Amino acid sequence: YVNDQFLFGTQPIEEPDDPREYQMMIELLGEENVAFATDYPHWDLDHPDAVDKLVRNRFEPDQRDAIMGGNLASALGMNV
């Protein structure tokens, strides 16, 4: 049910002391169910670099691209 009905945003992201915890969270949710969300223009926004830093070396490029935009585009029916 969750895989078909939910998309989890990264905002607000609290960077864990151990970046592997963030990787484990995404793996538990499924990288296809996670989308980058910035909450711009609020002062405490999540900068794309912060999220990219956490996923860059922990996921394959296609998984990272999905998290950073592809999953949301797909959910909205957009072609990217």
Task: Fill in the keyword field for this structure.
single chain, mainly alpha
Descriptive notes:
The relative contact order is 0.20. By secondary structure, the protein is mostly helical. Helix content is 48%, strand content 5%. The protein has helices spanning 2-5, 19-29, 48-55, 61-75, and strands spanning 8-9, 34-35. A two-stranded parallel sheet has the order 1-2. It contains 4 helices and 2 strands.
The number of helical segments is 4
Shape: globular
Strand order of the largest sheet: 1-2
Biggest sheet, open or closed, and with what strands and sense?
A: 2 strands, parallel
Helix content: 40-55%
Order of helices and strands: HEHEHH
Q: Indicate the proportion of strand residues.
A: 5-15%
The number of strands is 2
Low-confidence stretches: none
The span between the termini is 26 Å
Structural class: mainly alpha
Task: Give me the Rg, rounded.
Answer: 12 Å
Please write out the topology.
Blueprint: H1 2-5, E1 8-9, H2 19-29, E2 34-35, H3 48-55, H4 61-75
Parallel strand pairs: 1-2
Summarize the structure.
By secondary structure, this protein is mainly alpha-helical. It has helices spanning 2-5, 19-29, 48-55, 61-75, and strands at 8-9, 34-35.
